Amino acid sequence: MSTRNLKALFRPQSVAVVGASTKPKSIGAVVMRNLLKAEFSGPVMPVTSEHPSVAGVLAYPDVACLPQAPDLALICTPQVTAIPGILRTLGEQGTRAACIMTSGLHHSLTEDGSTVLEQALAVARAHDMRVLGPNSMGILVPGIGLNASYAHEGALPGKLAFVSQSGALCTAVLDWARPKEIGFSHFIHLGDTEGMDFGDVLDYLGSDPMTRAILLYIETIHERRNFMSAARAAARNKPVLAIKAGRSREGARAAASHTGALAGSDLVFDAALRRAGMLRVDDIEEIFGAVETLARSRPMKGKRLAILTNGGGLGVIAADDLSELGGELATLPEEVIEK
What we know:
Elements: H1 6-10, E1 15-18, H2 27-37, E2 44-47, E3 53-54, E4 57-58, E5 72-75, H3 83-93, E6 97-100, H4 116-126, E7 130-132, E8 138-141, E9 146-149, E10 156-164, H5 167-177, E11 183-189, H6 198-206, E12 213-218, H7 224-237, E13 240-244, H8 249-259, H9 266-276, E14 279-281, H10 284-296, E15 304-305, H11 312-324, E16 328-329, H12 334-338
Parallel strand pairs: 1-2, 1-5, 5-6, 6-7, 10-11, 10-12, 12-13, 13-14, 15-16
Antiparallel strand pairs: 3-4, 8-9, 8-11
């Protein structure tokens, strides 16, 4: 677990799109459109040998021809077996972050019998390059005008970070949030979480001054010890909420088929979240409620809280919860009570 080179991933000064395309609705075309539409202030460099330009921007035939090393490389080429070589050339030029949007790397074999994924990760480690994905929808950081994704909808700037293993859920949250004018500091799709896991992202977001709260959608965690360490540290600084899929045996099998990894015991996971100081939500409706609550709430300035209720029993329950969480019940002045 480390935040090393994550600034290049989440706050890049330049971006290359490897596999940029003019074909409508292709990933390479949508990524270019989103980057330009969001008005990213740094250089955007499309890489393709098929077109002299993409979306009106001069294209380069391969990554070796780029005029500078991009901070962030978005890999969306359909040529899966070419990806390790692309990463190697980028690493030699000085690129320190890549988001692999292409899928199927763990199914494709190389000449020596290893998978393309294994080779790609080995190349990334050799060049100290951080990799998001593969099979990632991308990254949105609205505060700096970065929409490095193939999402069909952009995000508004805000103080809430959303991190998900599900691209479909990312799409659903974006569709829901924009009409409600709810914004995000970061919107991150981890994809298959092979190059980077929740612990790395939590470590970064936990100390990010532009993020006030963090919401996670989790199917499986590869580096459990790193996750716990990062979760505890982040939860001490700001609210961290999580929805964990695969609670039932059937759901766990579905999660395994989706991410390719076992979901793990739900009872163990629930206990781990509590120990880390995180709050768990159980379904999509609660996710939307949590997003709206966190986006519109304001940070507490002290421990005292006044409880207003139309029922005595509910007030007592709320007072008990407040006390257990370390809060204090405020005493209202007489003139306030009289009003």
